[in-house]
Amino acid sequence: MTTLDLFQSPTSDQRESIGPCAFVLRGFALPYVDDLIPALADIEACSPFRNMVTPGGFTMSVALTNCGPLGWTTDRHGYRYTALDPDSGKPWPAMPDVFAALAREAAAAAGFRDFDPDACLVNRYLPGSRLSLHQDRNERDLDAPIVSVSLGMPATFLFGGDARSDRADRVPLHHGDVAVWGGEDRLRYHGVMPLKDAPHSLLGSQRINFTFRRAS
Ligand code: MD3
Ligand code: FE
């Protein structure tokens, strides 16, 4: 052991800092992928992906669904978390154990202990889909981190500042990468550049993103 090791946490070698409280864990989800894909198929069968409408009247190019006790939705009336899928009228599908375990392990690896998500937003990007710069501020507990898992085609993530007009860093996210954000980075503007078509061996021409939050 060198002297330098004393100043590093045990996980510091596998986490890449992109902000004071924002980290990318490259390939962290890879050992989970074989369990995540069939679990996603079950979620989709109950609550299919759909393109929701924003309060401003725009149909999102990203299609979404949810699992867990609460799900994020938008319509002409606003953004909110609901216990029921507005399309089916039934509760969102339960959060699979493998999802919750991955989210908890990734949060811990980034230094956030005891993360207990009650919402998992699942985004599906097709070629050309994009997410414009926004803040995530519909969650009651802004102290809890957010954990994001990328699968399938790569994307360029935009990581801005506390104002929409702040310059945004570009962070490439690949299949299996996990990002964790909290603390002072929790309310930074962020988005995703239009997806290029570069079919992935497992998922074809799509990118799937799981975003775990503590909503209530
Ligand atoms: C940084 N999704 O669903 S996840 C979203 O890749 C969303 O689908 C993107 O933004 C996606 O709201 C990015 C990474 C992410 C999520 C929330 C954040 C980064 C964040 C909140 C604050 C700062
Ligand atoms: Fe977001």
TrEMBL record:
Residue span, Fe2OG dioxygenase domain:
116-216
- Record carries keyword NAD: no
Which GO-annotated molecular functions does the record name?
A: broad specificity oxidative DNA demethylase activity; ferrous iron binding; oxidative RNA demethylase activity
The residues listed in the UniProt record as binding Fe cation, with positions renumbered to this chain, are: 134, 136, 190
GO cellular component term, pick one: cytoplasm
Record-linked Pfam families: 2OG-FeII_Oxy_2
Q: Provide the GO biological process annotations.
A: oxidative RNA demethylation
Q: Which cofactor does it need?
A: Fe(2+)
Q: How is the cofactor bound?
A: Binds 1 Fe(2+) ion per subunit.
Keywords from the UniProt entry = Dioxygenase, Iron, Metal-binding, Oxidoreductase
The protein's name is Alpha-ketoglutarate-dependent dioxygenase
Q: Give the originating organism.
A: Caballeronia mineralivorans PML1(12)
